[in-house]
Design a protein that fits this description.
heteropentamer; B: mainly alpha; two-stranded antiparallel ribbon; 26 helices; D: mainly alpha; 21 helices; 2 strands
């Protein structure tokens, strides 16, 4: 059963990936990526990473892709010309590189002396990869990474806002205003979802000052997003 | 006054003269400079005489004195003292040099009186005398070389005295360079000797030479050969002689002093001075003798065909020095030095007389243009004849005795020295021939226009002063014996100088007459050469033979000359026609200049040009500079071309790098 | 299934992502391909996490997700800004800077 | 289950140790909030001052913790002399970045609050990166560093090049991150640990140091970190991004990113991967040599000063890499020393470029500095000193820095790399001297002083379109603070060239942080 | 009497900095006064120096960079004493010469010029390898600025070439110097120490020595310059401002020669012996090539430039003869050449002013109304061609004797250079002063101001000619020590070395031959 699921998921992941690369229309590429992500989530599940799989579907396939779709729609990613000024030789080079890289990575993976790689891995309890276990790790061993991730999200949001913000004298396309505003609204949403996803499962008992700081700093970002 | 003080004063006088004249050059007139210069040299002569007498006062085995003023350079096992070495030989040379120099200075005061560079002239001339005296009195190899080079420099300055003449400057540089070659020879010779003796001091070297060196030891022979190179270059011996004829570009008194009487005999002095070495390195000495012989013959033949009055005398000088070199190389020291002395007298005299003639001709030097000057200038004629007789070794003139003594001593060596002996007599014939060719052509015959003018009491003035060598119009800004040039007939100073020399050329033989009638010279020099292994004695038969042969040959030469140039004036032209090849060969001076030009000058010049035009451009700038910058530039443009702005290329290169790195690591595992 | 299969899939996805970055000209799609590469890494992390039976790999995967989101956000921001400046949304046209 | 959760205790947090990081992030937050206020005083004076204060506090706190190395937050980070030193360099670069950006267009365009918050965050990322002893922290630090920079590069949005550089940096940077990440994944796979110590233990285990998976992982890490450090052949983003980014950002980036990248390279390679040293050592040596050559030849003939300095920074990366290759304490201290040197000399140069860029209207083209020897000695001298120092002329700090690197290379049996360093310095003269020549030996270009302060009309008609001579370039003349930066950095370049002792103390303490090295 | 070398070293720079602060028209006098003070100090040194004592005197030794073992160590011994004095003299002359002219931006000009003197003095006095290298590089920087800003036509390219080319060698030397220190410290296990005295104690392995030697040789040969590394020379010489050129050609090139004796022979004796033939051949090529070029080119500056190549070839010959005679000659010759070539360049400047060109084809007949100039020029020319009786000849005599003692054939070939020197020096003299007057020439006597600069320098040349022992006796002891280790390796060491040092009870580390040095 697991084998079959694996193959289905693997084919989905690879197919999705290939689709991303080959689809001429960015919109379809996004859709292909969604396929890929969902398949990947399945693979994660097979590897007993339940929480990550869930996050994958919710955050990635859900939130981030929505963002994508909006931008594609805004920018109007039309069909991309096949021939580029860079010359088509790059296409060949790309294929060669990708192949070589794959072979090298395959050698690395298959040629290793680690025997564990030829197993399904040790037996683990159902707890492994469960939200509880991950939450525990995030709040103990990886507390710093966790906090820094939240700050990273904040600053990325700020950055995106200031980049995409409309400015006097520079923005001469009033028709885009609405989409633009939506785009801005979207960032805190994405941010919120991420932190909520992570934070909700920890329960609010464990919140410490750093978390408070995250909460606090989210606000101005969001505020600016709305204000501009 | 002690011997050493007197000796140092010999050096100090001309040096003081030089300094005074050159430092005061703006203040003093040429005339004053001439007086200062002459007095300085005269004083030197006086001190030389004093030193001579002091030396004679000393016991015979203590007649070699070294004295040092200060340590000049002493380090690393080399000790150079500012020191002199006084022995009969150096005093003898000092006497000759300062004596003749005094007379020539005197002559110059008149001869150069109208020249704009008179002050400069006397400064140079005094400097020359200082250098020459330094040369002969040097107490070690180092100072010898210094004097050696200084006379070369003085010679250079005086040859190109009229420095706007390109011929003069060319001759100057030629003389200088060949002299430097001689210096180099001397230095190298010194090195070879120093390698074994570890001293530069003469006294120590000579004292230890026989202990250190085995006969004909290679290093010593090589060293002596290098010394000979120095001697040859200075004394204008084949093949280093080509500068001497050109050196006649200098004022005539200069030719007289430097290029006849003193400097050019330095080679003779050198060999005599180094006799303890040469007598061990007999091979080297033999080479010197052979070259001397070759020179005396070659120069003699060239002298026969030259038409420039000064050059004829110059070749004659070469030839006579050939005799001396031959003599001292064959251990005939006294003969060689005796001839050196008499030659100094009569050759100086001849040049002075020639100067007088040139004055009369308005600067013209070609004997083709001269004729019948006998009546116009009787004093000059008389002195010229005296000099000519002495040169062609006519009894009882000084040259007769000295040349005879010289050849006699060589003959006494026997063996292959007979060749030298015979060659000497052949040379004697040539000497008489070219000397009298000169005299007959200049003084005999119908007077030329200039002579006629002079007979009328008026000195000839050319319309434009031209360079006798190439006919170029002179740039008279800087002087020359200009319109007011003086000839011997008119100037007391010149007459005194020439007269004194004429007397000396006549009677100087008395110092060393045959059959040991008088032996002043050999007695005086004996302490120097006493240790010489070659000793002469007896053989009065040979001496008699030589005396007679000498006389016969001289007479024959004079008579032949008379026949060719006086009795049958066309003979010369006919001979020229018949032996045109030979004549051409001789007129071109045996093609020595051409050979040197072809073998040495041109290759060097070519190397220089090649260096400048090709090597510098291609290798130094091309390969080194251009190559490096080229590689850098090329790689720069390559790198920048890769930086083409295409984002995807950048990503590609990044990933390419990664694949390569992975590949490397895969190979590592 | 053995872990190595997961890893092979991961390697393949990574290579495909690389190929996409090198071939696509639309920056939006290039960003998607970058996501592919990150996801490949994520898969590898989770595979290894399973293999070693420790949770570190999974944490890493979560962090990567955050990072991926941030990168995408900023990337999209720049693309939007470019679009506003009416610059072509095509990486091959970005050649002002070169040499 | 509740009981289980109740048993869970948060890790011990050494607040003193983590205080520099908190200071930076806190300052970023405060600045961000203050950015909301519209008052001119707040935006143009208070915010930059606060940013500087933030950096200053971080430096001060770092100095306070200098003698108290500690492992922080359950093995996520370590604070030791090395990380403090590198963090200090980054923070100092941040201070200078703030000063250079103070009245710049970039900060105004981006919004003062956001701009400085990004800068602060980036430095915080650097601090995390160099302190990380865990690959999760490493990665998050890397991104915390990079993402603000992507944005900062693009902040002069009026300028096409700025956006271009932002996007290029982002895409290539992400490729680099992904590569690094995959490498980390493989290393994790090979060793089963995300801790440096764990990785080192894993690699130390028998045979693993030459296992293909581990080695491939190292290879990918080389690519990923090499990218950040601009090591050839991963350097290509550098010139484009440096040129396109706003000059204050470039200045900051050139120094701070380099410092952080080498910080992490050293830490990761000399701690986590030390057992595979004989595998990666020769490779990095070759890369160092290539980098030196590529960087130096690339810089030749550039007319954009920023671009030239970008290439030069590639070359400097090559020099610095030598210190990594040898993996000795001497190498570490040489790198730290050189980074300090690099800070002052590079900042002096960039300050001058900023000043001239705003004044001359010729952008960062080399013609903008022509003749300033006569007209503006306060800028000319620092620039000259900086160029001479970069090329390693004695009596400058660059000289001592090079000596250290060469000495480390000889000490580590990589003498040929020492030779490469001097060969590189030699090539570098060709372009550094060109700058010096422009400063002193050319007359000021005629009419080269266009009217200032007219926005788009800065470039007078007829002025050729030069590199960086963008019509929308910053129109306002630089304030005294830019000149001050130039002068202070110039003086420091000379001062530390003559009295290098203080820098040595820092560098050697940093070197001693690596207990595993000799 | 205590003499602080630091004062000598920094005085010029201090004067230069002071000159920056005062109005431009005073700068020159301040800098000139500074250099005169240095000269006075140097003369004091000459008198005060204890010539019998081996080893350094007046040592200033501070640990400069503790961590790298770099010392700020200055000292005087026989190798640098005379060169130091010559440096002070030549710089004073060059300053005095430059002070007669108006320079644009005078304060900067004088600052850099003064800086240059400090750089050179530092290179001569440094007793620490890195300090030496630092000053060696540093002294080029002022040259760069001086030429670049005040030079002749085409200066930008020329000075760039010069700077990069000469720094190429210097940077290699830097690497080699650092390597020397590190390797020595590895060998001894002691903390790294770059002081010459410390480095000399432990010899490096032969293979390390070899590449290090080559790097040092590259630096020195380029700086001299020696054939075929002189590519920078023609353009550089053509464009340098005359006073700078005077200092550059006279002094900076000597630092390189000095470096061989100070650094290379004592520290890398095995390599010195190993590469002896190579160095001798290079030096010989320099002599021949420089001479050949000098009588082909027509620019008077370049004639002197190429002649310098030849002269420095001689100096290298002397050094690598690895004989005391040669080394002594080289030291002397280095001083002599500096003393002679500096005024010669000034004469060339005067000639150019009279002929309107530095091309000797445009000159001619200039002696006419300028007898003093002609006399000075003649004296200098003769000294330059090393006429016996000049101190230059003493130098050459010793040099060639040294070469003769070690390689006879090379000595004989080298004499060609002596002959050629006479050709090219007289050629330039004749073409300038003699022959027909050139088309645009104007013969005039030197002015009083010119004379005040030139005549003292010529007098020094003459004084040296009369008493070269003055220099020789001061370097006598030190030179033996400098070449001793190389001689030990070569197997030509005299036994006298013990005799020199033993009675004085000196245990200078430089003297003690390394135990393993004997093959």
């Amino acid at each position: 059963m697991a084998t079959i699921l694996f193959f289905i998921a693997a084919v989905g992941a690879i197919g999705g990936a290939v689709g991303v690369v080959l689809m001429r229309n960015p919109f379809y590429s996004v859709l292909a990526l969604v396929t890929h992500l969902v398949s990947l989530a399945l693979l994660f599940l097979l590897l007993q990473a339940q929480f990550v799989a869930a996050a994958q579907v919710v955050v990635y396939a859900g939130a981030v892709m929505v963002l994508y779709v909006f931008v594609v729609a805004y920018v109007g990613g039309g069909e991309e010309p096949t021939t580029s000024t860079g010359g088509s030789s790059l296409r060949t080079i790309a294929i060669v590189f990708a192949t070589v890289l794959f072979i090298e990575l395959a050698i690395a993976i298959l040629g290793t002396g680690l025997h564990a790689i030829d197993t399904r891995g040790p037996t683990v309890s159902g707890e492994f990869g469960a939200p509880r276990r991950i939450g525990e790790l995030l709040l103990t061993r990886y507390l710093l990474a966790f906090e820094l991730s939240s700050f990273l999200l904040l600053i990325a949001a700020v950055g995106a806002v200031l980049l995409a913000r409309r400015r006097r004298g520079m923005d001469d396309d009033p028709a885009t205003v609405s989409v633009h505003d939506v785009f801005h609204m979207q960032i805190p949403a994405g941010l919120g979802s991420q932190s909520e996803t992570v934070g909700a499962r920890q329960g609010d008992r464990e919140l410490d000052e750093s978390d408070a700081e995250v909460e606090e700093t989210v606000a101005p970002g969001a505020h600016r997003g709305e204000g501009s | 006054m002690s011997l050493t003080t007197a000796s140092w004063l010999i050096l100090a006088c001309p040096l003081a003269g030089t300094l005074i004249i050159s430092l005061l050059f703006r203040v003093i007139s040429g005339r004053v400079a001439g007086i200062i210069g002459t007095l300085a040299i005269g004083a030197a002569f006086v001190f030389a005489v004093i030193a001579f007498m002091k030396l004679q006062d000393r016991p015979e085995n203590a007649r070699a004195v070294s004295d040092s003023l200060w340590t000049y350079a002493k380090t690393a096992g080399v000790d150079v003292q500012m020191g002199i070495y006084i022995d009969p030989l150096s005093i003898f040379m000092a006497l000759v040099v300062s004596g003749v120099s005094t007379l020539i200075h005197l002559y110059s005061t008149a001869y150069m009186a109208s020249d704009k560079g008179e002050v400069r002239y006397f400064a140079y001339l005094n400097f020359f005398v200082f250098s020459m005296l330094l040369l002969v009195m040097a107490g070690n190899f180092f100072l010898l070389i210094v004097g050696w080079a200084f006379v070369g420099a003085a010679s250079y300055m005086l040859i190109s005295f009229w420095y706007r003449r390109t011929t003069a400057t060319k001759a100057g540089i030629k003389a200088f360079v060949i002299n430097v070659l001689g210096d180099v020879g001397l230095v190298l010779g010194t090195y070879f000797i120093f390698r074994h003796t570890h001293t530069l001091d003469f006294a120590q070297t000579f004292a230890s030479a026989s202990k250190i060196f085995s006969p004909n030891e290679t290093d010593l022979v090589i060293g002596c050969l290098f010394l000979l190179v120095g001697a040859f270059a200075k004394s204008a011996q084949v093949p280093f002689h080509t500068w001497l004829p050109d050196a006649m570009e200098g004022p005539t008194p200069v030719s007289s002093l430097i290029h006849a009487a003193t400097m050019v005999t330095a080679g003779v002095y050198l060999i005599a001075r180094m006799h303890p070495l040469f007598q061990i390195a007999t091979t080297a000495a033999d080479v010197g003798a052979v070259v001397g012989l070759a020179t005396l013959l070659i120069a003699g033949t060239i002298g026969l065909v030259m038409t420039d009055i000064k050059r004829v005398i110059a070749y004659s000088t070469m030839s006579q020095i050939g005799y001396m070199i031959m003599a001292v190389s064959s251990a005939a020291y006294v003969g060689g030095l005796f001839h050196l002395m008499t030659h100094a007298f009569f050759k100086a005299l001849l040049f002075m007389a020639a100067g007088s003639v040139i004055g009369a001709m308005g600067g013209e030097q070609s004997i083709e243009k001269m004729r019948g000057l006998r009546k116009a200038m009787p004093f000059t004629f008389a002195t010229f004849v005296v000099g000519g007789l002495a040169l062609s070794a006519m009894i009882p003139f000084a040259g007769y005795f000295s040349k005879d003594d010289l050849l006699f001593e060589i003959g006494q060596r026997g063996g292959w020295y007979w060749i030298l002996y015979a060659g000497g007599y052949i040379g004697a014939f040539l000497t008489a021939l070219y000397t009298w060719r000169l005299i007959f052509r200049v003084f005999w015959g119908d007077p030329c226009p200039e002579a006629v003018e002079l007979e009328g009491g008026h000195l000839h003035h050319p319309e434009a002063h031209t360079n006798p060598a190439n006919g170029e119009v002179e740039d008279t800004d800087i002087g020359f014996p200009g319109p007011e040039h003086v000839i011997a007939e008119r100037s007391i100073a010149m007459k005194v100088a020439m007269g004194t020399l004429a007397v000396l050329a006549t009677i100087a033989g008395v110092v060393q007459l045959p059959y040991n009638i008088t032996d002043g010279l050999s007695n005086f020099l004996d302490p120097v050469f006493a240790d010489s292994p070659v000793q002469f004695g007896g053989h009065t038969d040979l001496e008699t033979f030589g005396l007679i042969l000498s006389l016969v040959i001289a007479a024959a030469g004079i008579l032949t000359a008379h026949r060719i140039w006086v009795v049958k004036p066309g003979t010369s032209a006919r001979l020229q026609e018949r032996f045109s090849g030979l004549h051409g060969f001789l007129v071109n001076k045996w093609y020595f200049d051409e050979a040197i030009e072809f073998l040495i000058v041109r290759p060097f010049a070519w190397c220089g040009r090649f260096g400048q035009q090709t090597f510098e451009r291609i290798v130094v700038n091309g390969v080194f500079v251009g190559g490096a910058t080229g590689v850098t530039r090329a790689s720069s443009s390559a790198v920048r071309a890769a930086q083409n702005g295409f984002l995807r290329y950048y990503a590609a290169l990044l990933l390419f790098g990664v694949t390569i790195v992975i590949f490397y690591f895969l190979l590592q595992s | 299934m053995d872990v190595k299969w997961y890893l092979t899939v991961s390697a393949l996805v990574f290579a495909i992502g690389v190929g996409g970055v090198l071939t696509r000209r639309n920056p939006l799609v290039v960003l998607l391909c970058l996501e592919l590469m990150l996801n490949a890494a994520n898969l590898a992390f989770i595979g290894f996490s399973r293999m070693w039976a420790n949770g570190d790999g999974q944490i890493m995967a979560i962090v990567v997700m955050v990072v991926a989101a941030c990168e995408v956000t900023v990337g999209l921001g720049i693309v939007v800004a470019m679009h506003r400046r009416r610059l072509p949304v095509d990486v091959d046209e970005l050649r002002e800077l070169q040499g | 289950m509740i009981a289980a959760v109740a048993r869970l205790h948060g890790p011990h947090i050494d607040w003193a140790g983590i205080s520099p990081l908190v200071a930076l992030l806190g300052a970023a937050t405060i600045v961000l909030i203050l950015g909301l206020f519209r008052g001119r005083f707040v935006r143009e004076t208070l915010i930059p001052l606060l940013a500087i204060a933030g950096f200053g506090t971080a430096i001060g706190l770092g100095a306070w913790r200098w003698h108290h190395p500690a492992v922080l937050v359950s093995n996520a980070m370590t604070i030791d002399a090395f990380s403090i030193a590198i963090s200090g360099i980054c923070a100092a670069a941040g201070v200078i970045g703030v000063l250079l950006a103070w009245r710049s267009l970039a900060a105004r365009e981006a919004g003062q609050g956001e701009f400085y918050a990004l800068l602060l965050t980036s430095v915080a990322g650097m601090v995390v990166l160099v302190s990380a002893i865990n690959m999760v922290t490493l990665f998050i630090g890397l991104e915390l560093l990079s993402i603000p920079l992507y944005v900062l590069c693009a902040t002069e949005m009026g300028r096409e090049k700025s956006l271009e550089s932002g996007l290029k940096y982002l895409i290539i940077g992400s490729v680099g991150s992904a590569t690094l990440l995959y490498g980390l994944a493989l290393l994790y796979g090979a060793t089963g640990s995300t801790d440096y110590a764990g990785i080192a233990r894993g690699l130390g285990a028998k045979g693993l140091a030459s296992d293909v998976m581990a080695l491939t992982g190292i290879a990918l890490v080389v690519g990923g970190l090499g990218f950040k450090a601009s090591i050839a052949p991963f350097q290509q983003w550098t010139p484009d991004v440096y040129e396109g980014a706003p000059t204050p950002v470039t200045a900051f980036m050139a120094v701070a990113t380099k410092a952080a990248a080498f910080g992490v390279l050293l830490r990761f390679f000399d701690v986590a991967l030390i057992d595979a040293q004989q595998n990666w050592g020769p490779l990095l040596a070759v890369l160092a040599a290539i980098t030196i050559v590529v960087g130096n030849v690339g810089a030749i003939g550039q007319s954009s000063l920023k671009r030239m300095l970008a290439w030069s920074s590639v070359a400097q990366a090559g020099y610095l890499l030598v210190g990594v290759v040898v993996s000795t304490r001497a190498g570490v201290s040489a790198i730290v020393f050189y980074l300090c040197a690099y800070l002052v000399m590079n900042m002096a140069a960039f300050a001058v470029i900023v000043a001239r860029e705003r004044k001359s209207g010729r952008g960062d083209d080399i013609s903008s500095i022509e003749g300033i020897g006569a007209s503006d000695p306060l800028l000319a001298w620092p620039l000259t000193v900086a160029m001479l120092s970069l090329s390693g002329i004695p009596m400058t700090v660059g000289f001592i820095g090079k000596i250290n690197l060469i000495s480390a290379s000889v000490n580590g049996d990589y003498t040929w790399l020492g030779i490469m360093i001097v060969v590189g310095s030699l090539i570098s003269l060709a372009y550094y001297l060109r700058v010096v020549a422009a400063v002193w030996m050319r007359p000021s270009p005629e009419g080269g002083m266009p009217a200032l302060g007219h926005g788009e009309d800065v470039v007078p008609p007829g002025l050729p379109v030069l590199a960086g001579g963008d019509p929308s370039a910053d129109p306002r003349p630089a304030g005294w603070e830019v000149t001050a930066v130039a002068v202070v950095c110039g003086v420091a370049t000379i001062f530390f060239g003559i009295v290098p002792g203080p820098l040595y103390d820092i560098a050697q303490a940093a070197g001693r942080s690596f207990v595993g090295l000799f | 009497m205590t003499i602080h070398l630091s004062i000598i070293l920094w005085l010029p720079l201090a004067a230069g900095v002071l000159g920056l602060l005062v109005p431009g028209r005073f700068s020159r006098w301040i800098v000139l006064a500074g250099s005169v003070a240095v000269l006075a100090y140097a003369v004091l040194l000459l008198g005060d120096y204890d010539r019998a004592r081996p080893g350094l005197q007046y040592v200033t030794d501070e640990l400069w960079v503790k961590q790298l073992g770099i010392h700020y160590k200055l000292g005087i011994d026989g190798l640098n004493l005379v060169l130091l004095a010559v440096t002070a003299l030549v710089f004073t002359g060059a300053f005095a010469w430059a002070a007669r002219q108006e320079w644009e931006r005078p304060r900067l000009f004088w600052f850099w010029f003064a800086f240059m003197e400090t750089g050179v003095l530092g290179a001569f006095m440094a007793q620490d390898l890195i300090l030496f290298v630092a000053f060696f590089d540093l002294m080029l920087v002022p040259v760069y600025f001086l030429t670049g800003q005040w030079g002749g036509e085409g200066r930008a390219a020329a000075i760039m070439k010069l700077f990069i080319y000469t720094l190429a060698g210097s940077l290699l030397m830097l690497a080699a110097a650092v390597a020397t220190g590190v390797l020595v410290s590895q060998e001894t296990g002691q903390h790294i120490n770059f002081a010459f005295s410390a480095l000399a104690r432990t010899p490096l392995g032969a293979s390390s020595q070899e590449w290090i030697f080559l790097c040092f040789a590259a630096a020195f040969l380029v700086k001299m310059p020696a054939f075929p590394f002189h590519g920078w020379m023609p353009d550089g010489y053509r464009t340098m401002p005359m006073p700078v050129l005077v200092a550059f050609s006279a002094i900076l090139s000597k630092v390189a020669a000095y470096g061989f004796l100070r650094v290379v022979l004592p520290l890398f004796p095995d390599a010195s012996v190993h590469f002896q033939e190579l160095m001798l051949l290079l030096a010989l090529s320099s002599v021949l090539y420089g001479s050949a070029m000098a009588f082909t080119v027509t620019n008077a500056r370049l004639i002197l430039g190429y002649s310098s190549i030849a002269q420095l070839g001689f100096i290298v010959l002397g050094i690598f003869a690895l004989q005391k005679t040669g080394a002594q000659g080289s030291i002397l010759q280095a001083a002599n050449h500096a003393l002679v070539v500096a005024p010669l360049f000034l004469v060339v400047a005067l000639l150019a002013a009279r002929a309107g060109s530095e091309d000797i084809r445009e000159m001619g007949g200039l002696a006419m109304r300028a007898p003093i100039l002609a006399a000075l020029f003649l004296i200098l020319s003769l000294a330059s061609l090393a006429i016996p009786g000049s101190a230059n000849f003493v130098g050459e005599f010793y040099i060639l004797l040294g070469v003769f003692q070690s390689k006879v054939a090379i000595a004989i070939f080298a004499f060609t250079g002596v002959v050629m020197a006479s050709v090219y020096m007289l050629r330039v003299y004749i073409r300038a002063m003699h022959n027909r007057a050139g088309p645009n020439t104007e013969s005039r006597e030197i002015s009083l101001a010119d004379g005040l600069v030139l005549v003292p320098m010529v007098l020094v040349v003459l004084a040296m000619a009369l008493y070269p022992q003055f220099a020789l006796e001061r370097s006598n002891v030190t030179v033996s020590l400098a070449i001793h280790r190389a001689q030990v390796v070569a197997g030509t060491a005299p036994n006298r070395i013990a005799a020199i040092t033993a009675p004085l009870g000196v245990s200078q580390p430089e003297i003690v031959p390394a135990p393993g040095a004997t093959p």
